[in-house]
Design a protein that fits this description.
This protein has 658 residues and is an alpha+beta fold. The chain has four domains: 207 residues, Histidine kinase-like ATPase, C-terminal domain (Heat Shock Protein 90), CATH 3.30.565; 147 residues, Ribosomal Protein S5, domain 2 (2-Layer Sandwich), CATH 3.30.230; 121 residues, Rossmann fold (3-Layer(aba) Sandwich), CATH 3.40.50; 154 residues, Four Helix Bundle (Hemerythrin (Met), subunit A). It contains 20 helices and 24 strands. The strands form five sheets. The protein has a nine-stranded mixed beta sheet, covered by helices on one side. A five-stranded mixed beta sheet has the order 10-11-14-12-13, sandwiched between helices. β12 and β13 form a beta hairpin. α2 crosses α4. It binds adenosine-5'-diphosphate and magnesium ion. Adenosine-5'-diphosphate (ADP) binds next to α2 and α3.
Length: 658
C-alpha cells in the first residue's frame, strides 16, 4: 500500500474546466495523444540537454512506448525522459498545465466561432477530454530521487503519493471514458501516431513495434539530401501522384525559425488553387493539413511541409493572418520560391522550359497577386513562340554551356535556343520586343487558341511575324496585366486585325471599272453585302500578299477592343463569351476564288436583270466563303451549321450539273 502524501486542490479559477473543453473541442479529442507524446519527446530532449551539459551521465535510451490494456480500459504513454519529482509535479502539472489550459479556454471562449489552429495550448490537460482518470507515475533522473504517483479525475482534486517505480522517466496512464473506447484499438492509435507524430525525433513504439518514421528531412541540411531523397519524401507525403517538378528547401534561424520543403507539383487544369495542401508542423509535430494563413495565397498550389515554432498556434486562424511574424514568414517563403525559380532559369533553362507549363501558372498567378514577387520573377517570365530562330540553326550549343560560363545577372542575356528537334521554343517579352523592334515596334501578336486561330497564326508565320502563345487558363488575365505593366506595348490577338506587312496595299486600291470608277475591292464588298445581308457585319476587302500561300479567300476578324468588351461582359454576367455578332469579314481580293467570283457575278450583270443562275451561284459562294471563314474561327452555332451543310450540298449539286 502506498500512502497518500498529499491531497489537495488545484488552484485554478474556472471550476472544473473539463466540461467546457469537452463541449468545445468535441471533434478534436484525438489531439490528446499528440500532446502527451509531445510532452514525452520534450522530456527526452530535456534529459539530452542535461546530459550534454554534464548534469547527467547515465544512459539515455530515448524511446516512447504506448501500451493498451483493453480489460482495464487503460492507455499508457511511457517515456525515458527527464522525469519529475513531487515538487515538479505540483509545479508543472497542478499549476502550469492546469493554468495554461484555463488560459486556453479563456482565449477559446472569446473566439469560439473561429477555429484555433491545431488546438494548441491545451497540453497535458487535453487528456481529460478522453479519460475519466489520469495518472502520472514518474521518477526523476536526479540522484536519489523518489518516484511519485499522481492521479486526478479532471476535477480540481488531485492525489499525490510515493511510487515504487524504479525506471527513470514518466508513464501517463489514462482510464478512458466509456464513449472514448476506440482509443483502445491498436489501429486507431497507430493511425494517430502516423498523423501527428510521424516525424517526431524519438522512436514511438506500440506493442514493441516502431510506428513513426522519425526522420524529418526538412530538418536536415540541404547538402546532405540527394534528389532521390527529396522525391522519396514527396512520394511519401503524397502517394500515387506524379513526381514534382522542383522543390525549395527552406532553412532559416533568424529572425525567425522556419524549416520546410516546398514542392511544385504538376498542375492539373482542374486544380483548385484556393485549397492549400502544405502541411504545417511545429517542432516536427503535425499541426494542420493546410496553412492557408501562413503562406501567400498564390503559393497555395505548392505542396510539402512548413515547420516553424514561431507561428503562434493557440490563436484563431484569422488572427494568424494579421500576425506580423507570420506575414514576414510568408514574405520569406515567397522570396525563397522566387529565388529558386530564378536559379533554375539560370542554371538549367531547358529544365525550366520543360516545366514551364506548370511553373508558369505559379509565376503568373504570383505576379498577378504579389508585387514583390512580380518584381522578382518579371525577367524569367517566358512565352512559347512561333519564332524558330531563323539563321540560328547552326547553333546546337546546349543552353547550359552558355549559362555556366555566365555570371551574376547574366541569366537575363541567355536567349532561348530553338530546339533542333522542333520542340517549342520560348522567349521573354523583352527578347520578343527587341527581336521585332524594326518590324513592329512595341507590338505583340498573340494567340489564345492554337486550333481555332491556326489560320491566323499560319498567316503571320508565313509573313515572318512572330506570334506568342498565351493559351493557358490564366493568360486571359495575364494579357491585361502585361498591358498595365507595359503601357507602351500594344497586344493584339492574331485574329484582331492584320498587320500591314500582310497586305499588298498597291493592289487593294487598284481601279478596275473605269465606268463606275469602282475599285475591285469596292465591287467585292458590295457583292458580299448583298449576299450576306448582315447589318452588324463589317465587310472589309484587302489584297493579301499573293506570295503568301497561307492566305485564305476570307477571314473573320474580331477587333481587339470589341472582343475584350465582350469577354468582360461575359465575365461580369458569369457566362462564357459568345461569338460576337459584330465582327469583321476580311475578303482577300488577291485570292483566285474571289477573283473568279468577281468574274462570275460580272457575267450575271451582263445577263440582264433577275436572278440568273450565275448570280444565284455567286450568292451561294459568298455565303459559303463567309461560313468557311467563320468555321476557321469556331464561330458556328447549331443553325449556322445546319445552313452550312445544306448549302454545301446545294453548291455541290450545282457543280455537278454541267
Ligand atoms: P507544455 O508542454 O506546453 O509545457 P503541458 O501542459 O503539455 O504544457 O505540460 C506541462 C508541463 O508538465 C511540461 O512543461 C512539463 O514540465 C511537465 N510534463 C508533462 N509531461 C511530462 C513528461 N512526460 N515528462 C516530464 N515532464 C512532463
Ligand atoms: Mg506539452
Amino acid at each position: 500500500m502506498t500512502t497518500i502524501l498529499e491531497q489537495g486542490n488545484i488552484s485554478i479559477h474556472t471550476e472544473n474546466i473539463f466540461p467546457i473543453i469537452k463541449k468545445w473541442l468535441y471533434s478534436d479529442h484525438e489531439i490528446f495523444l499528440r500532446e502527451l507524446i509531445s510532452n514525452a519527446v520534450d522530456a527526452i530532449q530535456k534529459l539530452n540537454m542535461v546530459a550534454r551539459s554534464g548534469g547527467y551521465s547515465g544512459n539515455l535510451e530515448p524511446e516512447i512506448q504506448i501500451a493498451i490494456d483493453k480489460e482495464q480500459k487503460k492507455l499508457s504513454i511511457s517515456d525515458t525522459g527527464i522525469g519529475m519529482t513531487a515538487d515538479e509535479v505540483k509545479k508543472y502539472i497542478n499549476q502550469v498545465a492546469f493554468s495554461s489550459a484555463e488560459e486556453f479556454v479563456e482565449k477559446y471562449k472569446s473566439s469560439a466561432d473561429q477555429q484555433i489552429i491545431g488546438h494548441f495550448g491545451l497540453g497535458f490537460y487535453s487528456s481529460f477530454m478522453v479519460a475519466s482518470q489520469v495518472e502520472i507515475d514518474t521518477l526523476s533522473y536526479q540522484e536519489g530521487a523518489q518516484a511519485v504517483h499522481w492521479s486526478c479525475d479532471g476535477s480540481t482534486q488531485f492525489e499525490l503519493s510515493d511510487s515504487t517505480r524504479t525506471e527513470r522517466g514518466t508513464t501517463i496512464t489514462l482510464t478512458l471514458q466509456d464513449d472514448e473506447l476506440d482509443y483502445l484499438e491498436a489501429s486507431r492509435i497507430q493511425q494517430l501516431i502516423k498523423t501527428y507524430c510521424d516525424f517526431m525525433p524519438v522512436p514511438i513504439k506500440l506493442d514493441g513495434e516502431q510506428i513513426n518514421k522519425q526522420k524529418a528531412p526538412w530538418k536536415e541540411s540541404p547538402s546532405s539530401l540527394t534528389k532521390e531523397d527529396y522525391l522519396e519524401f514527396y512520394r511519401y507525403l503524397y502517394p500515387f501522384q506524379e513526381d514534382p517538378l522542383l522543390w525549395v528547401h527552406l532553412n532559416t534561424d533568424y529572425p525567425f525559425v522556419v524549416n520546410g520543403i516546398l514542392y511544385f507539383p504538376k498542375l492539373k487544369p482542374d486544380v483548385d488553387v484556393t485549397k492549400g495542401q502544405i502541411k504545417l508542423f511545429c517542432n516536427q509535430v503535425f499541426v494542420s493539413d493546410n496553412c492557408e494563413e501562413v503562406i501567400p495565397r498564390f503559393l497555395l498550389p505548392l505542396r510539402g511541409v512548413i515547420d516553424s515554432s514561431d507561428i503562434p498556434l493557440n490563436v484563431s486562424r484569422s488572427f494568424l493572418q494579421n500576425d506580423r511574424t507570420v506575414r514576414r514568414i510568408a514574405d520569406y517563403i515567397a522570396k525563397k520560391v522566387g529565388d529558386r525559380l530564378k536559379e533554375l532559369y539560370r542554371d538549367d533553362r531547358q529544365e525550366y522550359v520543360r516545366g514551364w507549363q506548370d511553373l508558369g501558372t505559379f509565376v503568373k498567378f504570383g505576379s498577378l497577386n504579389d508585387d514583390k514577387f512580380k518584381k522578382q520573377v518579371e525577367d524569367i517570365l517566358i512565352y512559347r513562340t512561333t519564332w524558330q530562330g531563323a539563321g540560328n540553326q547552326a547553333s546546337t550549343d546546349a543552353p547550359e554551356v552558355q549559362v555556366q560560363s555566365a555570371e551574376g545577372d547574366a541569366w537575363q542575356d541567355v536567349s532561348p535556343k530553338p530546339e533542333a528537334d522542333g520542340t517549342p521554343s520560348y522567349t521573354t517579352l523583352k527578347e520578343y520586343l527587341e527581336r521585332n523592334q524594326s518590324r513592329h515596334e512595341n507590338r505583340v501578336f498573340y494567340c489564345t487558341d492554337e486550333v481555332t486561330q491556326a489560320t491566323y497564326v499560319e498567316l503571320h508565320k508565313s509573313q515572318g511575324l512572330e506570334v506568342l502563345f498565351m493559351d493557358s487558363f490564366i493568360d486571359s488575365h495575364f494579357v491585361s496585366f502585361l498591358e498595365r505593366e507595359h503601357p507602351e506595348v500594344k497586344f493584339s490577338r492574331v485574329d484582331a486585325d492584320l498587320d500591314e506587312t500582310l497586305i499588298d496595299s498597291d493592289k487593294s486600291s487598284e481601279i478596275v471599272d473605269p465606268a463606275t470608277n469602282k475599285t475591285r475591292g469596292e465591287q467585292i464588298k458590295e457583292l458580299f453585302q448583298q449576299a450576306l445581308n448582315k447589318p452588324k457585319l463589317t465587310i472589309r476587302t484587302e489584297a493579301l500578299k499573293t506570295d503568301n500561300e497561307a492566305a485564305p479567300p476570307a477571314m473573320v476578324l474580331l477587333p481587339e477592343a470589341l472582343r475584350r468588351m465582350q469577354e468582360l461582359n461575359a465575365l461580369l454576367q458569369q457566362q462564357t463569351a459568345q461569338f460576337p455578332e459584330e465582327h469583321v469579314l476580311l475578303v482577300n481580293t488577291a485570292h483566285p476564288l474571289i477573283q473568279n467570283l468577281t468574274k462570275l457575278s460580272q457575267g450575271s450583270v451582263l445577263q440582264s436583270s433577275g436572278q440568273s443562275p450565275s448570280a444565284e451561284l455567286s450568292t451561294l459562294i459568298c455565303q459559303h466563303v463567309y461560313d468557311l471563314a467563320l468555321m476557321a474561327q469556331k464561330g458556328f452555332d447549331a443553325d449556322g451549321m445546319k445552313a452550312f451543310v445544306e448549302r454545301s450540298n446545294q453548291v455541290l449539286t450545282r457543280l455537278t450539273q454541267n
